[in-house]
Amino acid sequence: MDTKRTEIEKLGEFGLIDHLASTISLINTTSVKGIGDDAAVIDIGNDLVQVVSTDMLVEGVHFDLTYLPLKYLGYKSVAANVSDICAMNAVAEQITVSIALSNRFPVEAIDELYDGIKAACSNYKVDLVGGDTTSSLSGLVISITVLGRSKKEDVVYRSGAKEHDLIVVTGDLGGAYMGLQILEREKGIFKENPQIQPDLDGHDYILQRQMRPEARVDVINFLKELDVKPTSMIDISDGLASELKHICKNSSVGCHIYDEKIPIDAQTSMTALEFELDPSTCALNGGEDYELLFTIDQKDYEKIKGNPHMTIIGHITDSNEGMYYIDKQGSAIELKAQGWSHF
Ligand code: ADP
Ligand code: MG
Q1: How many whole angstroms separate alpha carbon 36 and alpha carbon 144?
Q2: Which residue among 24, 116, 170, 239 is least crowded, i.e. fewest CB within 10 A of its CB?
């Protein structure tokens, strides 16, 4: 009898996915891209592809209903899925929603969750076309699958970055993580003394970043208008360092990014300092910003230069050069992706 037992912790989330992927091969010629990108890509003929992505959120692991109202949870779940479709440079069109519920939730609570889901569907112009409903013995589980579409030639993978390409991020980073720190702090205070009202004043921007993120559909549209097709792209759900590592690994390249270039909102920086955290560390390793990270050919530099939604933070190097982060003093530090570990 085989008594070998390997703890999941030993592989980590990405190691486990790689482990599973290594045993799976694709049979159908319509399966253009399987495991390993933000979404799978399926040939539907006429030079079009369908892109498919799925995400599961588990109460107590991914969200805490003591401070995230169900309506926000619903919105955020859809936004996170649509973000993965954006990361392929495609347009989201349909979602399915599956939920596992305990009897702790009345119908009114589910209505609230769906109000958020429907608000996001209306905002991102996607149709809710199905799902599944089942019971759960512990908390709430919500799993959304999103379907999108694109011209085959327009799809952008994690694997296309080339030496000398510019590395671009949208919006600003680290805000969602700092918003979470505020919510956790106020929850802790409330637990100790329920008489004290949560003090959320002055943190509206980072709370919004945490509680009501938006998928950057607008950026995908700007890029189309500017006639820029990124050479590689991924969305920032686990943190800049972790996502950059995926791009470099999949494209077999290295990178240099510059601390002083990383876009961080003033409220994120101030809150980080209040918590005695380095704002850059929060931007590099904080998750859930749902911004886009992409690379462009240098010939497209003029087209995005000065664009308020996009910031060039570095460039792609030869793979032999490794992944480096140049700090404020100009020292090159090897990039380590901390990302998130749920295990
Ligand atoms: P993202 O953060 O963009 O949602 P993930 O890190 O969740 O991406 O997933 C990376 C890739 O691994 C995707 O292609 C996803 O479909 C695939 N994947 C994740 N979990 C599994 C699994 N249990 N079985 C097969 N493929 C998986
Ligand atoms: Mg993604």
Answers
A1: 18
A2: 24
Written as six digits, the tokens of 174 are 């680290």
Q: Helix 217-226 crosses helix 70-86 at what angle (to 10 degrees)?
A: 30
State the closest ligand 1 atom to the C-alpha of 36, by its place in the atom list counted from 1. 14
Mean pLDDT, residues 91-103 taken together: 97
User: For the chain, what percent of residues have pLDDT higher than 70?
Assistant: 97
Q: Which residues of 250-264 are buried (b: 16+ CB within 10 A; e: fewer)?
A: bbebbbbbbbeebbb
Mean pLDDT of the chain: 94
Q: How far apart are CA 302 and CA 102, in angstroms?
A: 54
The answer, yes or no, to whether residue 341 has pLDDT greater than 60, is: no
**Residue 199: pLDDT band by 50, 70, 90 thresholds?**
confident
**Atom 22 (ligand 1): residue with closest C-alpha?**
17
Q: Count the helices and strands in the chain (H runs, E runs).
A: 10, 13
pLDDT at 180 over 50: yes
The rounded Å distance from CA 186 to ligand 2 centre is 29
Interval 308-331 mean pLDDT: 95
Structure tokens at 305: 């230069």
pTM comes to 0.95
Instruction: Place 211 in a pLDDT band, splitting at 50, 70 and 90.
Output: very high
Pocket test for ligand 1, best of 35, 236, 243, 342 (most atoms within 8 A of CB): 35
CB hemisphere CA count around 67 (13 angstroms): 23
**Three-class DSSP category at 70:** helix
Question: What is the C-alpha end-to-end distance of the chain, expressed in Å?
Answer: 27
Residue nearest to atom 3 of ligand 1 (CA): 38
CB distance 55 to ligand 1 below 6 Å: yes
